[in-house]
Specification:
The complex is a heterodimer. By secondary structure, chain A is an alpha/beta fold. Chain A has helices at 8-14, 35-43, 84-95, 108-120, 132-137, 144-151, 166-171, 188-194, 198-219, 231-244, 246-294, 302-308, 313-341, 344-351, 353-358, 366-372, 376-382, 389-402, 406-416, 421-446, 466-500, 503-518, 525-534, 536-544, 552-564, 569-579, 581-608, and strands at residues 23-29, 48-51, 58-65, 68-72, 98-104, 125-130, 140-142, 155-157, 220-222, 455-458. Chain A has a seven-stranded mixed sheet with strand order 2-3-4-1-5-6-8, sandwiched between helices. In chain A, strands 7-9 form a two-stranded antiparallel ribbon. The relative contact order of chain A is 0.07. By secondary structure, chain B is of the alpha+beta class. Chain B is 19% helix and 41% strand. The chains are: A alpha/beta, B alpha+beta. The interface between A and B is large, with 41 and 31 residues.
Chain lengths: 612, 75
């Protein structure tokens, strides 16, 4: 395992030019200590999320004052280069003029490890002890004066969600000091080298852990017996435990998924998109754009087709990005941010860990998979939360092939009535679930390496702060649209060229024999399959007008083929960007083979065993 | 015994963490030789959730098998 992505001298080269008055302050801390809330409070809403050069980890940046940049880093437990996130954080921290270290008052003992490591690395440091309100609820008393004295750096108490302590933090940033190092700790450069050797590292970490545990024991006092804690805290703990109980947890999960389907699948993907796409886009925006283009390019011309035709680059990408994707992604991110901030999502990850580790993933992968039922494109981007490339490959493949997005689900829902109703759903879900497990198992055995085991900090269940949820949602949605928009435009351009050149019709002609002889479907279904490449829901919708002329078995076959078949062009483009050309091509070919292979199998099986 | 063999409600003391990489990772979270923790939840066939102070950490089964513990008390 490499310690950092780049050798030390390359790190120096990365150091920004110390231009006159430009100062860099880095925010660092463990996950779930409210670091992003502190970041938002310090910088205001105007945050710029970008990828750290050469990596895929999001780094928000903002202005602390006129000539000071404040940069957030991913939540980490220490600087050990154990994951991409740690490597990114470490590089940022080494370049910082000052580090603001956010720690949580309720997990001070754990959090001080990173604090002490920053001190041992001789960084100028200021510590923000956040979540003081929750410590108060738990009858925890923290001696700030003593903590500051023992660490040798300024310490400030905060309740970032209420804006308390933020001003003080801001005014005292430049009082940051290099603190009291762990006894017998070597100079920073030597220490950083030593910590790269696994054996020496364990010893050094042992000393540091011992040192900070003593500090923590000195400054943290638990006032009363824990059982006398406030009812809010007790309720939070009971609720948290209940969600981890397999029976209650599964019922809760089913409830959450159903409500997610109702909110995002029905209200957002259905009703809202009908309005934004149908009424706003197709009613006003698209005709307006057409008119605008027609003042320059006459209608009927191939170039006109390419720009504003049925699959025109301009019309289709705008209609898709703002009419469909934007409301969908916004709705989904609000929901996910709520679940995340109240502490529910990590518990779902714990519950699903044993199943997911069987297919080479771990509990963390539940997040991208849930997101996939909203939008596969968005979910593929979110596979970045997974620790290793191996896990990202497995998760992306499962997403691209077996997970139907909400746009598609809405149409499938309408069609299921003619594919056996409830029985049809059972066949459909069983079929996709089996393929998901089989695919994951095969990849898990095929890919070199092993899945990483789960280590997950479970934050207490708490009422989410709506302000924070909306801020997070907005930043995420913006970042996603900015990233996905060019890919959608590229995707539409490819489809437009295919259509104008007549290639789209050719594919349909080539596909017909397969659909007729293998899948026992009318040859027109090929059109639906090809449309599925343009947009997944177009494919499903293409089956709508066939629904009266085909039987239940044929409909089931068609629905399964359409789900497994190539993801929409946008998610294919994101897949290509995230996973590289080789993996993207393999997934494309794999999904064709799987779709027709499984489709053939399903239709033969259903013909032999007529359960529908 | 190892962490995966414990019962919900047990208070434990850590004797040893076999795998050095896991030991390093756990050290940062405050779990090391000699530290006390309690088992607050177990998912059948899945992770064990341990509590230390006001912190809860879920550890995958494969990690739990590497952590040797001794029972201090049980509920």
């Amino acid at each position: 395992m490499t310690h950092t992505l780049l050798p030390p001298d390359a790190l120096m080269a990365l150091k920004p030019e110390p231009s006159a008055g430009e100062r860099l302050v880095i925010l660092a801390g463990n996950p779930n200590v409210g670091k992003s809330v502190v970041f938002n409070a310090l910088t205001g809403l105007y945050v710029n999320v970008s990828n750290f050069p050469g990596t895929t980890v999001d780094i928000p940046r903002g202005k602390l004052d006129e000539n000071t940049t404040l940069q957030d880093t991913p939540g980490i437990y220490g600087l050990s280069g154990m994951s991409e996130e740690e490597q990114v954080a470490e590089k940022a921290i080494l370049n910082a003029d000052v580090v603001i270290n956010v720690v949580s008052a309720i997990s001070l003992e754990r959090d001080l490890f990173l604090t002490q490591q920053l001190i041992d690395y001789e960084k100028r440091l200021i510590v923000a002890v956040n979540q003081m309100d929750e410590a108060c609820e738990r009858k925890l008393d923290i001696d700030m004066v003593k903590l500051s004295e023992l660490l040798g750096v300024p310490v400030y108490a905060c309740v970032a969600t209420q804006g308390q302590g933020i001003d003080k933090l801001k005014t005292h940033v430049w009082d940051a000091k290099t603190g009291n190092k762990t006894p017998d700790s070597p100079p920073a450069e030597v220490l950083q080298e030593d910590e790269k050797h696994p054996g020496k590292r364990l010893t050094l970490y042992g000393h540091r852990r011992h040192h900070v545990n003593a500090i923590s024991a000195n400054v943290v006092h638990q006032h009363e017996d824990e059982n006398k804690n406030t009812w809010r805290h007790q309720f939070s703990r009971k609720l948290g435990d209940a969600f981890l109980n397999p029976v209650i947890g599964l019922i809760a999960m089913a409830g959450v998924l159903l409500s997610l389907y109702q909110v995002v699948g029905v209200w957002v993907a259905g009703d809202t998109v009908d309005f934004t796409e149908g009424t706003v886009m197709l009613g006003y925006v698209v005709p307006f754009l057409k008119g605008l283009v027609e003042t320059v390019v006459p209608a009927g011309n191939w170039f006109h087709q390419l720009l504003v035709g049925e699959f025109g680059v301009i019309t289709m990408s705008i209609q898709y990005i703002y009419g469909v994707l934007f409301p969908l992604v916004l709705g989904f991110y609000i929901y996910i941010s709520l679940l995340e901030d109240c502490g529910y999502l990590p518990r779902v990850a714990v519950l699903s860990d044993s199943l997911l580790s069987r297919i080479g993933l771990n509990g963390r992968a539940v997040i991208p998979i849930i997101l996939g039922f909203g939008c596969v494109t968005m979910a593929t981007v979110s596979t970045r939360v997974l620790n290793t490339q191996r896990e990202r490959t497995i998760a992306s493949t499962i997403l691209a092939i077996t997970v139907p997005c909400s746009a598609q689900l809405a149409v499938i829902m309408a069609l299921m009535a003619s594919a056996g109703g409830l029985k049809g759903w059972l066949v459909y879900v069983a079929c996709l679930f089996t393929i998901m497990i089989a695919l994951g198992t095969i990849l898990n055995n095929l890919l070199p390496g092993k899945s990483t085991p789960l280590v997950l900090d479970l934050p207490p269940m708490r009422l989410p702060s709506l302000k924070n949820v909306f801020q997070k949602t907005w930043v995420r949605t913006q970042a996603f649209i900015r990233e996905a928009a060019p890919l959608f435009i590229l995707g539409s351009a490819i489809v437009a060229i295919f259509q104008v050149s007549g290639f789209l019709d050719k594919i349909q002609v080539w596909l017909s024999p397969v659909t007729v002889s293998l899948l026992h479907l009318p040859s027109e279904t090929a059109t639906a399959f090809v449309m599925g490449m343009v947009r997944r829901d177009f494919g499903a919708a293409g089956l709508l007008h066939l629904s009266s002329s085909i039987n239940a078995i044929q409909m089931m076959t068609a629905l399964i083929v359409i789900t497994l078949f190539v993801p929409c062009i946008a998610s294919a483009a994101v897949f290509w960007k995230e996973r590289g050309i080789k993996e993207a091509t393999m997934i494309l070919i794999g999904s064709w083979l799987l779709a027709f292979g499984i489709g053939t199998l399903v239709c033969r099986l259903l013909e032999a065993v007529p359960i529908l | 015994m190892t962490l995966n063999e414990t019962q919900v409600g047990d208070t434990l003391c850590i004797i040893d963490i076999a795998n050095p990489q896991i030991a390093t990772m756990a050290m940062r979270l405050g779990i090391c030789k000699g530290s006390n923790l309690s088992v607050c939840s177990k998912v059948p066939g899945g992770p064990v959730v341990v509590r230390r102070g006001h912190m809860e950490i879920a550890l995958g089964r494969d990690i739990c098998k590497q952590i040797t513990v001794t029972k201090v008390s049980s509920q």
